[in-house]
Structures
1.
Amino acid sequence: MAGKFTFLSEKGEKGTKRLEEVNLLVESFYGLSKTPDFHDKFGVDEINLIQDASLKICDTYYKNLKENKSFMESKDGEEDTRVNRYKIASGIEIAICEVQPFATSSHVNNVRIVNSYFAVFAAIGILMAWEDGNDYLMDYTFPNLNPSEQKEIHRLLIEHIDWLCLVKSNAHLYYFSNAQTWWALRMLLRELNEIRI
């Protein structure tokens, strides 16, 4: 692993932990991709996983993180580089869009949609890894939202997937604006749920 996946190897134990998380997400999504409903939804016949998918995602994630570190220096003199859960989710999404870990013989747009959908799936999984009590992001039924609000959240996620289809490389503006999207979505869902409890 050291020679081929340099950026991941540099992270040692932290990289190993991230790789385990990503591998679980990849395997979970790959299992979902084998269902007839999935094939119908995305207009694909068969989904294949590229070789070393999780390793490539993590290596790209750490490469991009290294490139974006200079934009994350603390403004108040602390040594903390401010990599929070939203930047991690954003970084994972962008790495997935770069790597395109899932392949199919279908039209290239279908492949980008499948991988963008996986990117959202992974970002939600990463955010849920830091659950701190009531976190509503993963509760797709959104029990305290009315049908109109649920529809709006669903539209937002569809638009986000469409946007991810356009992301092909790491750029710090994508990275940070995407992190803010996840922060805003999480705060919105928390607000909408808590006002009705």
2.
Amino acid sequence: MKKKKKILFVDTENIGIQIPETIKKRYTIYFYLHNRNILPKIYPACMNERVRLVDLSTNSSNVKNEMDLVLLAQLSICCAKYKKKRQYVILSKDKGYDRPIELLSQEYGVKIRREEKDLKEFLGKQKVRLALPEPAKEEVFKPWIDQDLFRKCKNYNEYRNRLGKKKRNEIRIDPIAYRGANNAWIEYDPYQKVWIPYVSSFALKAISPNKELAIVSNRLKEYIKNKERNC
């Protein structure tokens, strides 16, 4: 018998941020984040097509329990859309979800449950791409990706060119003042899974792309310092 598809809702505020490297096709995962310091570490792992990253750090309303409210709103939308065609699981230690789960289950006649497990525990024995503590130092990071466009394009150059000027500005990481203007930055290539330095909208060939954001950031800063020193 074919197993029913499941939609998972991950409350990272109390359940952890581990993301398995491989996720079976029957799962769709809504992964909620509120702490911007975590994003640079998990962003590459969120490129898995089964994961829907819900970044609440960029446009947070600072409302108490905002993540809980957004999660329950998304759960309600999914229940209304898919009804019994899906099973629904909230991964959280927060018992406050239990009453809404009961109400939604009765209203739509669907199976919803809460489990106090992270993704690694829930999905079973799988290779985990990330199991890191939150960085103590705040980092400048505003990740964003158009998931539909990402799947349509063959490479990052095509994806980037089709974004439009406004969206290209939003994906810039660690902007650096260079000769009086903020025209040096870093972007993440989800196709090659590397960080790429840019100067004035062109990829900087003097620095090779790297899978580690910190390495590219340090090299770009050193490059800018040398350029400024030689001016």
3.
Amino acid sequence: MCVTAAAVLPASLMLYGVSVPGGYYDFLVGALWCWAIVGVAWAVVGMRWLLRDPPESRWRLWPLAVFPVLLVATWWTASGDLIGKAAFAHYRADLERLAGRPPTHDDTHVGPYTFDYRIQLAGCTLFSVRGPAMAQGSGFAWCPGVAPIDHSWGEGEIFERIEGDWYTFVMPFGGDRVDPWGLQVTRIDSVGHV
């Protein structure tokens, strides 16, 4: 069924969108729009089949159950920290190699990560994610032998330890607390993305 196959696109966009601290704005907004479009198509196709098919042949409608199951499973997975932390664990060695190089303000790619810049500040190397969805700024901080939580940061960064010398940082909209990982639909803001 085409509607069920089409649900793979928003699921993929959403899971990729939450692979970074703060999420990727373009991917998450795209996923939400795609879920809405596929959802409408699913409802139209389902109603057409229900009205057209005789009651005894409705068992053939089982493919229609795949869309809501995929939607719920994707949303549940994207809302947690599983995707982000798994992506970080997979690309940690690459990030450490990048952290050892001189900082640049150039666009840098590592796995699913696209960084606007890397800078050294207060003993840490900050990797700023391009286009975060749920924060004004976000990314990773590699702080060997330093606890960034102990410093006063000028932009209101909130740090959370991942493991070892690695932290996430988030600069929330309006100073509110925001979790660095996972989908937080009410936190998605278009400021700076228009």
